[in-house]
Each structure stands twice: as C-alpha cells, then as structure tokens.
Amino acid sequence: MSSRWPEVGDLLLHTSNDGEEHQGLITEVAGSAADAGFAMGRVIVKWHGDSAPSDYNWSYGYSAVNVHNCFNSFELVKAC
After folding, report:
1. Distance (Å, whole) CA 26 – CA 76
2. pLDDT band at residue 4, thresholds of 50, 70 and 90?
3. Edge to edge, what strands does the sheet with 21-30 contain?
4. pLDDT at 40 over 80
5. DSSP state string for 61-73
6. Which of 39, 48, 63, 66 is deepest in the core (most CB within 10 A)?
7. Is the dihedral of CA 69, 71, 72, 78 positive or negative?
8. Which letter does DSSP use for residue 19 in this model?
9. What gap in Å lies between CA 75 and CA 23, rounded to an integer?
10. Closest of 38, 36, 25, 27 to residue 64, by C-alpha
C-alpha cells in the first residue's frame, strides 16, 4: 500500500479549515479497493483529548480517499 494510504495504528494529524490542529489514532479502516472501491473506504479515528475536528463525522469517520489525497489537511505518521 501507499505510504499515504491510512492503516489501523497510524497516527492521523489533521488541520481543519480554521487552522485548528488535531491528532488521533486510526482504529478502523472499513472498505477497501477489493470490497467496494476506494471511494467507499472510511477511516475511524480515536481523537486525542476531548475534542474532534468539527468536520469529523462520528458515524462515518473520514473518507480514506480524502485522507490519502488531501495533503493540506491530513498527515499520516505510519505505525511500525
């Protein structure tokens, strides 16, 4: 997989549109290219602290494609 593709155990650093920074651990990646296509993948995050980004959907998480492609919003620190 690409180093930009999210995997369970990766640290996700997110900068929202208002400049706020959030950190969280990826706990689930549901859907994949083999399952239903990249567009269907979702990334569930356990956020550090008491708050999550305002654009985080608690039911769906983030689109795996957005995490992969949006360099200005998402940075991944890969798990070893």
Report:
1. 10
2. confident
3. 62-63, 42-47, 21-30, 11-15, 74-77
4. no
5. BEEHHHHHH-TTT
6. 63
7. positive
8. S
9. 10
10. 38
Would you tell me how many other CB atoms lie within 10 Å of the CB of residue 43?
29
pTM over 0.90: no
Residue 32 has pLDDT above 80, yes or no: no
DSSP-derived 3-state class of residue 78: coil
Provide mean pLDDT across the span 61-75: 93
Q: Please, are residues 30 and 11 in contact by the beta-carbon 8 Å criterion?
A: no
Residue 64 structure tokens:
């795996």
- Is the pLDDT confidence value at 74 over 90? yes
CA–CA distances in Å: residue 19 to residues 3, 7, 14, 22, 26? 24, 25, 9, 10, 21
Identify the CA nearest to 25 among candidates 61, 54, 60, 68. Answer: 61
Q: Would the pLDDT of 72 be above 90?
A: yes
